[in-house]
Amino acid sequence: MRKSAGMDERGGGKYETEGEVGFLLDPIAEFREDHRKVRDGLLALEEAIRQNRIGEAREVLGGLNQLVGPHFRYEEEALYPTLREYLGEYVDQLLNEHDGVIRTARRCAELLQKDELSPEEREAGARAARSLLVHVSNCDGLAIISERLDADRLGELARKFETCREQGVPLLEWAATIRERRVD
Ligand SMILES: [Fe+2]
After folding, report:
1. Ligand 1 centroid to 46 CA: how many Å?
2. Contact 108, 128 (CB under 8 A)
3. CA of 135 to the centre of ligand 1 (A)
4. Cβ(143)–Cβ(8) under 8 Å?
């Protein structure tokens, strides 16, 4: 595989592979776009739980589960190990935050199996959804560091991100099966 003239400096762009022309995603732009979708999804989830719109809350949580599974997998299998060189033990904090997100997502999914939520359950669920914004904010900060990676490493990240998306394993399924770190 070699980069074509259309390759942009951040690693996204057109690649030629033995005569075939493929298109790799821009790993930084897609990473940040995921964060925007997660941010908006979490705020929509909080609102739906607060307003007792359980069906809508289930749908939003289901969408987040699909989106965040490949995103977390890409981060843990590719991005975080790559950035450990720059960020050292901070990467461990991010992994701990992922553990917390998985626990919270499980609790929300359990809660939303009920057809009715008490006012206390609604408050707890809404707060839990909002609390996840902290990790979205922390994680998006990695984009500024990723911009210093060279084109080869960005190309590797792009390939890995694409593979994780193609496989499309939802968050809670990934956490229970493929992920090496287990969360009780
Ligand atoms: Fe992230």
Report:
1. 19
2. yes
3. 8
4. no
Give the confidence band of 162 by pLDDT, cuts at 50, 70, 90: very high
d(CA 150, CA 16): 19
Cut 0.90: pTM above it? no
CA dist., res. 79 & res. 72, Å (int)? 9
- Distance (angstroms) between ligand 1 centre and the Cα of 70 equals 10
CB 179 within 8 A of CB 164: no
Q: What tokens appear for 62 in the block?
A: 């289901």
Distance 117 CA to ligand 1 centre (A): 30
Q: What is the pLDDT of residues 118-158, one digit of tens each?
A: 999 999 999 999 999 999 999 999 999 999 999 999 999 99
In this predicted structure, what is the pLDDT of residue 184?
A: 87
* N-terminal to C-terminal alpha carbon distance within the chain: 42
CA of residue 94 to ligand 1 center, whole Å: 9
Strand (E) or helix (H) holding 24? strand 20-24
CA 121 to ligand 1 centroid distance, Å: 27
115 Cα: distance to centroid of ligand 1 (angstroms): 31
- Centre of ligand 1 from the C-alpha of residue 136, in Å: 6
Q: Does domain 26-177 have CATH number 2.60.120?
A: no
Beta strands 20-24 and 13-17 are antiparallel
